[in-house]
Amino acid sequence: MIKVGIIEDNEYMREGWETFIDFEDDLTVIGSFGSCEEAFESEVINKINVAIMDIGLPGMSGIEGVNYMREHHPDVNIIMATVHDDDDHIFDALKAGAVGYLMKKVTPDEMVSAIRDAHNGGSPITPNIARKVIATFQKAADLEEELSEREIQILKELATGRSYAAIGKKIFLSVDGVRHHIRNIYQKLEVHSRSEAIAKGISKRIINPDRD
Amino acid sequence: MIKVGIIEDNEYMREGWETFIDFEDDLTVIGSFGSCEEAFESEVINKINVAIMDIGLPGMSGIEGVNYMREHHPDVNIIMATVHDDDDHIFDALKAGAVGYLMKKVTPDEMVSAIRDAHNGGSPITPNIARKVIATFQKAADLEEELSEREIQILKELATGRSYAAIGKKIFLSVDGVRHHIRNIYQKLEVHSRSEAIAKGISKRIINPDRD
DNA sequence: AAACTAACTGCATAACTATGCGGTATTTAC
DNA sequence: GTAAATACCGCATAGTTATGCAGTTAGTTT
C-alpha cells in the first residue's frame, strides 16, 4: 500500500486527486493539505511514501517545501504537479530534490501511474518536460568550431586547476605550447579567460569534471 | 504510423522486437540491422521516426551511431536498448543525443510504450536509470558547510571571468574584501584555485552558468 | 616554386591570483 | 570585562595568466 500525501492549495483539485487516487487498490491518501506549513505540522508527514506537491502555494512555495522535505523527511518521494513549464521552475524543483514533475493537466491514469513509478524508484516526468531535461545532457551542437581532442584534454586539465607548466609537463609540451592551444580554445569557445572556458566547457557538456 | 528502425547485433533479439512491434496497429518496423554501418547504408534510414539502438555493436558502437545520426538524420528519435547500466554508458548516450534509455530486459509492453513516448516528444527511460539521471540535478548534500548567499553570488561572478576588482566594484567591497570571501569559498569547497571552485560549484549544482 | 595552415616554441610585460601576515569593528557568549 | 567568530580591510610578494609579437618546422594546396 503506497501512502500518498497531497499538498495543493486549490481544494477542488485536491479533492479530485484524493478521490481517484483512493480508488486504486494499492494507493491511499493519508494526508491532504492546502499548504506546506500545514503539511509539516501534521502527524502523518513522516509516514508518506509519495507526495504530490504544487509549486504555487500560499506561504512557503512548493520548491521551498521540497528543500525542507529533503532535509527533514528524505525518504519521501516528491512529485511536483504544477502549471509551470518554464526552465526556472523545472530545474529549481529538480535541484531541490523532486523526483518527478507533472503538468497539472495530467490524466488520472497518468497520475496514479506516476505515483507507482516514483514509489518504485523511477522519475515520472510529463513527456515534453522530460525531453527538455534530457536535452540538457546533449553536447552542444551550436559551436561553430569543435574543439580537437587535444584541446578537450587541455580544457579538462584547466578545470582541475593545474598551471600551464604542470599541464605542459603532463602532455609533453612547453608552457608556450600549452598557451598556444589555450588561445585556440578561447577563440573557439568565444571566451576570454580560463574561468569562462571552464564554465562554458562544462555547461556545453564538452567536459564533465565528475567523470573525467 | 510510427516507422521504427532496429539496430541490434543479436538476430534473435532483433527478430523478437520486430515481431511484437509490428503487431501494434500504429507501429511498423521499416528497417532492422545488425550494425550501424549496415543501417547508415540503407535507403530507409532517413524515413525512420524512432530508432532502437543497442550500444555494444560490431564496428561502430551504438553511441558513435547516435553521434552520426544526430549529425546526418537529426529528426530520428533514438532510444538506447542495452545491458549497460553504468554512468559512463548512460551519460555518453545522452550526451550523444539519445532521447531514451532502456535496459534490455524491458517488457514488450514497455518497449512499445517507450516508442510511442519518444515519438510524442517524451524521453522514455528505465525507472532506476531515470532516477539516477534526475539525481544529477540535485544540489549536492554532501558538503560539510553550505556557502552563504554572498559566497554563492561571488562564486557566480568568478565563473563569469571577472577579476576580484571588478567583482568588488559590483558588490561594493574592496579587492581584499572579495578575496576574504574567496578564501572562505575555497575552504568550504575544499579546493585551492579559482578553476577548481568554478568546476566544483557547477558540478555540485551550487551555481548554474546557463541560468544565472 | 610560393603561399598557407597548424603545431609548437620563445620573449616581454602588465594584470591578476593566492598566500601570509596583520588589522578594525561588530556581535554574541561566558 | 574577556574571548571568539564574522565581515571587511590592508600590505607585500611570488607565482600565474593573458596578450602582443615573433619564430621554426612540417604538411598541404595552388
Helix content of chain A: 40-55%
Overall mean confidence score, pLDDT of chain A: 95
By DSSP, the count of extended strands of chain A is 5
What is the name of the CATH architecture of the largest domain in chain A?
Answer: 3-Layer(aba) Sandwich
Please indicate the percent range of residues of chain A in DSSP E strands (runs of 2 or more). 5-15%
For this structure, the CATH topology of the largest domain in chain A is: Rossmann fold
- Count of structural domains of chain A: 2
Widest sheet of chain A: strand order?
2-1-3-4-5
Return Rg of chain A in Å. Answer: 23 Å
Number of helices of chain A: 10
List the helices and strands and how they pair.
Two copies of one chain form a homodimer.
Chain A: E1 2-7, H1 11-22, E2 27-33, H2 36-41, E3 50-53, H3 62-72, E4 77-82, H4 87-96, E5 100-103, H5 108-119, H6 127-135, H7 149-159, H8 164-171, H9 175-189, H10 194-203
Parallel strand pairs in A: 1-2, 1-3, 3-4, 4-5
Chain A binds a DNA duplex (30 and 30 nucleotides) through α9.
List key phrases describing it:
homodimer, 212 residues, alpha/beta, Rossmann fold, Arc Repressor Mutant, subunit A, 2 domains, 13% strand, DNA-binding
Description:
Two copies of one chain form a homodimer. By secondary structure, chain A is α/β, with parallel strands linked by helices. Chain A has two domains: 134 residues, Rossmann fold, CATH 3.40.50.2300; 55 residues, Winged helix-like DNA-binding domain superfamily/Winged helix DNA-binding domain (Arc Repressor Mutant, subunit A, Orthogonal Bundle), CATH 1.10.10.10. Helices cover 49% and strands 13% of the residues of chain A. A five-stranded parallel beta sheet of chain A has the order 2-1-3-4-5, sandwiched between helices. In chain A, helix 3 runs parallel beside helix 4, helix 7 crosses helix 10 and helix 8 packs across helix 9. The longest helix of chain A is centred in the C-terminal third of the chain and has 15 residues. The radius of gyration of chain A is 23 Å and the shape is elongated. Chain A starts with a strand and ends in a 9-residue tail after the last helix. The mean pLDDT of chain A is 95. Chains A and B meet through helix 4, helix 6 and helix 10 of A and helix 4, helix 6 and helix 10 of B. The structure holds a DNA duplex (30 and 30 nucleotides).
